[in-house]
Write a structure and sequence with these properties.
The protein is an alpha/beta fold. It has helices at about 5-10, 25-30, 50-65, 95-105, 110-125, 165, 170-180, 195-210, 235-245, 250-260, 285-295, 300, 325-330, 350-355, 365-375, 390-400; strands at about 40-45, 70, 85, 90, 130-135, 155, 185-190, 210, 270-275, 275-280, 310-315, 335-340, 360, 380-385. The strands form 2 sheets. An 8-stranded mixed β-sheet has the order 4-3-2-5-1-6-7-8, with helices on both faces. The longest helix has 15 residues, at about 110-125.
Length: about 400
């Protein structure tokens, strides 16, 4: 058994602890390890949707500015190492093994996500990262990532209903949790928030003495179109990222270069095969994300696809998500639906989906992709969505990529 395989098995065994919100365990582990969370400046990004996209954009801008950059995101699409990215590349396997075991040895009570977070901080410290761009795992106030000192910039992309069991059943309660990443002296960038959510952010800024940076144009150079594929589909997220970049002092040229060089797989990612088979991968996993995807699938945006009969939806979800509302939002965009279970324990039974909404059922992700392609032909569009775990499995299948097990943490 390889060291990485054994290490990941040890780490994945911690999934039995599930999620535990709170900073005490992580802070104690960081203290034992010489406080690696204090070794870099940070941009901290929270939000119901779009936080990963903003994190990817800002990381790319910082690299374009010549900085040594660490990026921490979750969950992973295909391989665990994607979560800890330094200089634009996933952390090397040998280093991953060292850091994960070091953290598990000193913090036996840590959860899966807490171990990953502290390991990222160690990796960033040892790589002498100047700027870490850190995506919140869940919420913000009590998320493991929130042990970092006041960040240069704290950002909240969107606030909508998701993880209501942990974060609360109103936009105000959810926004209160996300606003917990705002700390004294930080600059704050807010996406287009509902008034109830904005009120919570404003309250938190006033309490701690943080400064809001008004949301600016998504165009680094006003009037100069960006060479970023499907840029129209990340509008408000791009505006948040570019506003953060301006606050960090990057030039318009650096911002544009960073945006154009951004790689963020599985998010509005269009894959081509055999020159004409198009597959769109999108990690939308709640109704808010499904609305954004439905706009992206409008024929006026897609160009060559003229009708919904040429679009097949491959859809799967986990049982904590409002999949019925998602399917309702996507009802009118695709002429065909193929339901399949994402490769995680809490996957919704695809037969339950087909009983609720007309569609076929596939026994596995490769079968679902093959059937969807059959339904629309070589020139049609297959859209894979509903869960990041489904998108990761589909991407690995289509591109023949190595994978580590998916995990809902």
């Amino acid at each position: 058994m390889s060291d990485l395989k054994a290490t990941l098995e040890r780490l994945y065994a911690l999934a039995l602890h599930g999620r535990k919100l709170g900073l005490e365990r992580v802070q104690a582990a960081c203290d034992k390890l010489g406080n690696p969370e204090r070794s870099f400046q940070a941009v901290h990004v929270a939000g119901t949707n779009g936080k990963g996209t903003v994190t990817a954009f800002v990381g790319s801008m910082a690299r374009a500015a010549g900085q040594r950059v660490g990026v921490y995101t979750s969950p992973h699409l295909c391989r665990f190492a994607e979560r800890i990215n330094i200089g634009g590349a996933p952390l090397e396997d040998d280093k991953l093994v060292v850091y994960l075991n070091q953290v598990m040895d000193i913090g036996p009570d840590l959860t899966f996500f807490e171990v990953a977070t502290v390991a990222a901080f160690l990796a960033f410290r040892d790589a002498q990262v100047e700027l870490a761009v850190i995506e919140v795992g869940l919420g913000g106030r009590l998320d493991a990532t929130n042990v970092i000192p006041p960040p240069r910039v704290a950002a909240i992309t969107r606030v909508s209903y998701d993880h209501v069991a942990e974060l609360g059943d109103s936009l105000s309660k959810i926004a209160f949790e996300k606003a917990g990443i705002i700390k004294q002296g930080s600059a704050v960038v807010l996406g287009k928030l509902h008034p109830d959510a904005r009120e919570q952010a404003a309250k938190r800024m006033a309490e701690v003495g943080a400064r809001e940076v008004p949301l600016g144009s998504p165009e680094p150079v006003p009037g100069a179109p960006l060479a970023y594929p499907r840029v129209a589909l990340v509008g408000s997220n791009l505006a948040v990222a570019v506003t953060i970049g301006r606050e960090l002092g990057y030039s318009p040229e650096t911002l544009a270069k960073g945006v154009e060089q951004t790689v963020w797989p599985g998010r509005n990612e269009l894959l081509h095969r055999n020159g004409q088979e198009l597959t769109l991968l999108d990690c939308a996993h709640n109704p808010d994300g499904a609305v954004a995807l439905s706009h992206a699938l409008d024929p006026s945006v897609l160009g060559d696809i003229e009708s919904r009969k040429e679009i097949a939806l491959v859809f799967g979800a986990i049982n904590s998500k409002n999949w019925r509302a998602m399917l309702k939002r996507l009802e009118t965009v695709a002429g065909h639906r193929v339901f399949v279970a994402p490769p995680v324990k809490r996957a919704v039974d695809p037969y339950e989906m087909s009983a609720a909404v007309a569609g076929e059922v596939a026994e596995g992700v490769p079968d679902a992709l093959a059937r969807a392609r059959q339904l629309v032909g070589q020139r049609g569009l297959v859209v894979v969505t509903g869960s990041i775990f489904l998108v990761g499995a589909a991407r690995a299948s289509l591109l023949n990529l190595p994978t580590d097990p998916a995990i809902d943490l």
